[in-house]
Specification:
With about 500 residues, this protein is α/β, with parallel strands linked by helices. It contains 16 helices and eleven strands. Strands 1-3-2-4-6-5-10-11-9-7-8 form an eleven-stranded mixed β-sheet, sandwiched between helices. Helix 2 packs antiparallel against helix 3, helix 8 packs antiparallel against helix 16 and helix 10 crosses helix 13. The radius of gyration is 22 Å and the shape is globular. The protein binds glutamine.
Length: about 500
């Protein structure tokens, strides 16, 4: 058998269930890998916290339960090491959101998605780095540390869930959870060469996910293959009365038909996917994916999504508007950091000093942008216009997925995941718009509320280094069974997901 850390989540859980590997061995292997690769000046820096003792104790307890009741009774993740993005509440350790304002914050409870992982027998080994409050595309906005891309440590892992993506790419854990508001799972998955899935809005409970933009945020998994994504989705998806936007729909068993190719798969390709702004190797990988799907019997259909071009503009009104309201709670009274004030200063001084000290520049910028967009006199011009644009984008997708009224009736839509591979640390720090455009292909799924996945799709050459490139698929709302099967078809025909960075 291959070394433990080389196993996919499905392979590892199978090996643990058949007692070839113990939960303790699996956890120790993850902790050893983290100890060897994550720390120091040139380490990956995926983790903000590692729960060494707790994880080992949890693994021992799971081994005991496997010995007495069998792995099936423990759950589908029995003994698998898992990492959580540090914007997910956990009742132990800290929940920092990579922000100074929450640096010492201890959550009194565990969020639903994390609890489902624990209830399924997963062993949480640590919490991963992110852009502060999930605002960013490179992890460079983290106030608590830098994360380096395991393929080239001079480059970013993407963001905001860059720590989770890097942890899976570096084979520290076979499963990590992230959150995706505008691309924060799919873009880092692409830049790190792993699979990252943003489920349909409402599929996974947001209870215990620290809110950034509540109408866009969604939790999803990172794994090294699509089959393992299906396994993770089986665990984390499902209705939750604690989240009023959680969808009361049945969660299918995504594994049942995962290896059954879709007969007559119809893939829609919008013109924007072939933008001449894309890195040439992104274009090459995308065209190769099209040819691969054709060889697998799929039909490629040129479709029109005319409002896609306004995705970034609409997103950067809607997301900051919601953020400005969600982040109002960090006032120095209720959560986290509280500034010192002079005896003659008032409550407003407490609020503003606390927020000036606690929030980094990007978070402050988003709060100001959002407050401006929502302010009287500008509300209609900005916020309402963005909402109307959002509706148009959703209608474009509805139309593409429908065969009524002459619609093309495609099963999935395909684009590159990101216009370029991982960029150098600092490369976009002085150019906000360039950073925001990293999500040009991903934000629309959040605006439309549909599902999306990024899968490894080849490599780009930059300065003599091979960097992973992702291919993205979208499905209609709650169409993840088809999404995962379509992604798996490509994965089964290619080798990309089996390539790991040399470490
Ligand atoms: N990069 C985008 C942003 O900065 C998306 C972030 C996310 O999905 N959380 O807002």
């Amino acid at each position: 058998m291959s070394h433990i850390i080389e196993l996919t989540l499905t392979e590892l859980t199978r090996a643990i269930a058949s007692k070839e590997v113990s939960a303790l061995d699996a956890t120790q292997a993850a902790l050893d890998r983290i100890a060897g690769q994550d720390g120091g000046e040139t380490g990956v820096g995926a983790f903000l916290q590692v729960f060494t003792d707790k994880a080992l104790a949890d693994a021992r307890a799971i081994d005991d339960r496997i010995a007495s009741d069998g792995a099936e009774a423990v759950g589908p993740l029995a003994g698998a090491p898992v990492a959580l993005k540090d914007n997910m509440c956990l009742s132990y350790g800290k929940t920092t959101c990579a922000s100074r304002i929450l640096e010492e914050y201890e959550s009194p409870f565990t969020g639903t998605a994390a609890q489902r992982v624990l209830d399924a027998g997963g062993v949480v080994v640590g919490k991963t780095n992110l852009d502060e409050f999930a605002m960013g595309s490179s992890c460079e906005h983290s106030a608590l540390g830098a994360t380096r891309n395991p393929w080239d440590r001079s480059r970013v892992p993407g963001g905001s869930s860059g720590g989770s993506a890097a942890a899976v790419a570096a084979r520290m854990v076979p499963l990590a959870l992230g959150s995706d508001t505008g691309g924060s799972i799919r873009q880092p998955a692409a830049l790190c060469g792993v699979v990252g899935c943003k489920p349909t809005y409402g599929r996974v409970s947001r209870w215990g996910l620290v809110a950034f933009a509540s109408s866009l945020d969604q939790i999803g998994p990172f794994t090294t293959d699509v089959k393992s994504t299906a396994l993770a989705m089986n665990v984390i998806c499902g209705f939750d009365h604690l989240d009023s936007t959680s969808a009361d729909v049945e969660t299918p068993d995504f594994l049942v038909e995962i290896d059954t190719p879709i007969d007559g798969l119809r893939i829609g390709v919008p013109a924007q996917a072939r933008s001449d702004q894309n890195h040439p190797d992104v274009t090459k990988s995308f065209e190769a994916a099209i040819e691969q799907y054709k060889a697998l019997g799929a039909t490629i259909v040129d479709i029109e999504l005319p409002h896609l071009d306004y995705g970034i503009a609409a997103y950067y009104i809607v997301a900051p508007a919601e953020a400005s309201s969600n982040l109002a709670r960090y006032d120095g009274v209720r959560y986290g950091h509280r500034a010192e004030i002079e005896a003659d200063e008032d409550l407003v001084a407490l609020f503003s000093k606390t927020r000036a000290e606690g929030f980094g520049a990007e978070v402050q910028r988003r709060i100001m942008l959002g407050t401006f967009a929502l302010s009287s006199g500008y509300y209609d011009a900005y916020y309402n216009t963005a909402l109307k644009t959002r509706r148009k984008i959703k209608q474009d997708f509805d139309n593409a997925f429908s065969d009524a009224n002459g619609g093309p009736g495609v099963d999935v839509v395909m684009t590159p995941s990101s216009p370029e591979p991982a960029f150098k640390h600092g490369a976009k720090s002085d150019d906000l718009l360039a950073m925001y455009l990293a999500d040009i292909y991903t934000v629309t799924a959040n605006l439309a509320g549909i599902g999306g996945i990024s899968i490894p799709g080849g490599f780009a050459e930059e300065d003599g280094v091979s960097l992973p490139v992702g291919v993205q698929l979208f499905c209609p709302a709650f169409g993840e069974t088809t999404l995962l099967r379509a992604a798996r078809m490509y994965e089964s025909a290619t080798e990309w997901n089996r390539m790991a960075p040399a470490m």
